[in-house]
Design a protein that fits this description.
Layout (H helix, E strand, L loop, with lengths): L2 H16 L5 E5 L4 E6 L2 E7 L21 E9 L7 E4 L4 H10 L8 E3 L7 H4 L11 E2 L2 H10 L5 E5 L1
Length: 160
């Protein structure tokens, strides 16, 4: 690796280590972006893949849609079918009420995660294709950053 590339990589690692934890996540589904915020400052922006049917909110288990609403990061999974995952507190009260009114199971297990284990971004079409069952997917390297910057209890807003 050329010296200037090593220097740039080293500067990026130092910048990440000195980056403060974030206090809010914002997903903009139409733009396919996950934005990490600290106060009013944007800390990081990632290009994401969503559920296979990205338009509209998640309504029921198995609909392959990404939810819309306000949630909280409530668990970390280092061992899953994907490279690291953090759980989103879907379904919330509104989601449960909507599902109950329709007589359906709202589903769950909505995460921000890396790539499937033993698959590459190219193999799943990431990020050009929406390939998840309703989760928000990033690259493994991006998931490492998110893992370091996001704490349990961090609110997440998911917008259309």
């Amino acid at each position: 690796m050329p010296a200037d590339a090593r220097q740039k990589r080293s500067e990026n690692q130092v910048a990440l280590l000195s980056t403060p934890r974030v206090d809010r996540l914002v997903v903009l589904k139409a733009q396919r972006q996950l934005v990490l915020m600290r106060g009013d400052d944007v800390v990081r922006v990632y290009r994401v893949a969503l559920g296979r049917y990205p338009e509209g909110p998640k309504v029921r288990k198995g609909d392959a849609r990404t939810p819309e609403g306000t949630y909280v990061i409530d668990a970390r999974l280092g061992d899953s079918n994907f490279y690291k995952a953090i759980h989103i507190s879907y379904p919330n009260r509104n989601d449960l009420a909507r599902a109950q009114s329709l007589g359906v199971d709202p589903g769950g297990q909505i995460m921000i995660h890396g790539l499937p284990n033993r698959w590459t971004a190219y193999q799943v079409g990431h990020p050009k294709l929406d390939w998840t069952q309703g989760c928000i997917a990033v690259t493994n390297r991006e998931m490492d950053e998110i893992w370091r910057l996001v704490s349990l209890g961090t609110p997440i807003e998911i917008h259309p």
